């Protein structure tokens, strides 16, 4: 299959579309045909080998955020389902996993960093990392949930955000900022945006301020 492959000494000049072996599913894995992929800071840092984690393997396929179509069936996900990928490896058994903090798994890591990612035609991943895209949601919208959406949701959860509070979102027209705006609106917050884009009002911001014009 074709894949984006980055080689030492890394950087954009050392990334190219290459022919690589198809992934081989292990027990419990499903095959997913990649349809869409997000491009996030983590992916740029992978291409440049600037992550705080070591890249495996080398040469490396980047791509932490993907959506695609299941090509095999599991217990919940069936062949033909549109899916997004939770981009974290986790064992599901350690003290962090069993307390709802899979992102801290002691045997885990980021898909596309600890292992090859999804800038390729096909991936093989454990079914527990896949989520079925609901009816009515476009796959091209769903693809940005796993990194951009979860980053915003996690930040709001960490801050103890809840309805009735005021929320100020810097960079509200970016991927994560837009999700923070949308989620804030959904949970009943009064959302103000710092952005040069008036259209963020269409996503739930009631006020939009320029970077140098935020009221006290
Ligand atoms: Zn764990």
Automatic annotation (TrEMBL):
Keywords: NADP, Oxidoreductase. GO terms for molecular function: mRNA 3'-UTR AU-rich region binding; NADPH binding; quinone reductase (NADPH) activity. One of its GO terms (cellular component) is cytosol. Gene3D superfamilies: Medium-chain alcohol dehydrogenases, catalytic domain (3.90.180.10). Residues 27-135 form the Alcohol dehydrogenase-like N-terminal domain. PANTHER family: QUINONE OXIDOREDUCTASE PIG3-RELATED, QUINONE OXIDOREDUCTASE-RELATED. This is Alcohol dehydrogenase GroES domain protein. It comes from mine drainage metagenome.
């Amino acid at each position: 299959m074709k894949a984006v492959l980055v080689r030492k000494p890394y950087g954009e000049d050392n990334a190219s579309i290459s022919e690589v072996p198809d992934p081989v599913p292990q027990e419990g894995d499903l095959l997913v045909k990649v349809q869409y992929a997000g491009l996030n800071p983590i992916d740029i840092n992978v291409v440049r080998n600037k992550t705080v984690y070591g890249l495996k393997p080398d040469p490396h396929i980047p791509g932490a955020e993907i959506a695609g179509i299941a090509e095999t069936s599991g217990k919940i996900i069936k062949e033909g389902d549109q899916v997004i990928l939770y981009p974290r490896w986790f064992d599901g058994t350690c003290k962090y996993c069993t307390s709802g903090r899979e992102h801290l798994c002691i045997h885990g890591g980021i898909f596309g960093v600890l292992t090859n990612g999804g800038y390729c035609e096909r991936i093989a991943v454990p079914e527990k990392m896949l989520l079925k895209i609901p009816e009515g949601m476009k796959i091209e919208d769903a693809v940005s949930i796993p990194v951009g959406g979860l980053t915003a949701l996690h930040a709001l959860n960490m801050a103890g955000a809840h309805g009735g509070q005021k929320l100020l979102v810097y960079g509200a027209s970016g991927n994560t900022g837009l999700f923070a705006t949308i989620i804030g609106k959904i949970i009943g917050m009064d959302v103000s945006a710092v952005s040069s884009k008036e259209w963020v009002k269409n996503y739930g911001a009631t006020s939009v301020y320029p970077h140098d014009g935020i009221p006290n």
